Amino acid sequence: MDNMINTPHNSVDNKNIADKESMHYKKAVNRTRKKVKLIRHLIIFLIINTVLAIINNVTTTQNQWWLWVALIWGIILIIHLIRVMFSNLGDKLLQQEMAKLGIKNGEQTLQQLSLFDESSVKMEQKEGKLKITFMTKCQKKKNNY
Question: Which of 10, 76, 86, 123 sits at a 20 to 30 Å CA gap from 62?
Fold first, then answer.
């Protein structure tokens, strides 16, 4: 790794890696913030409803109105919990689908598709344009006979 020459191609790869790491860092920070907000919401829920229960039981014991507040707020808290816990579900499902299709980091690996191998990809550059030709293993065998 130390003897790697820093070519423009390598610097582009390093920039892409840094961009991906930055993107993952931002997602991690965002998820952490959502979890902290959920914990804060839970603590406020417990404190406020405890105070309301005390006030209700000191003033009257016949009508437990604070339970309605706790019930409605509890439903809202459960919705908040579900949103936080499943907020990255779409990302996970996307990663699973990409893994099934042999896609890594947004780029498709031809070797994992099993239709192509390294020698079945032909690249030519003519008049400043890059032409890439793919040949499946079946086509390659057919041309070899």
Answer: 76
